[in-house]
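Bug #77: duplicate submission created two jobs. Keeping one. Sequence:
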Amino acid sequence: MSSKGVSKKLQAWIDARKRHRLSDAHVQMARELSLDPMKLGKIDNHRQEPWKAPLPQFIETCYMKRFGKARPDVVMSVETRFRLEEAKKAARRAAKRSAQNAHSESATVSPQEEADDPAR
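Kept job's structure:
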């Protein structure tokens, strides 16, 4: 599911979600725990190594130990998070562009104002 415009980091999480059959909540918890999506296969090896917990259960246990709660307060999919970040960036760019335009308009002096002001 190679989404157009999604960064390689986020694409790795999308692929890991499919490969390891994780929910959006598990992906978000793993991201907050700073787990590497490329190394989840080492952790998700509970069939060959029976002492290991299944990956979703392992993520939940680690999340509970670190944050003291079972799940994140707000669960968002990787795609939704990407869309929100892109909208935020676009708004920031527009605000910056409008501020630059306002600054450049106030900085330019018309020839009439220049003639009226002898100090210049």
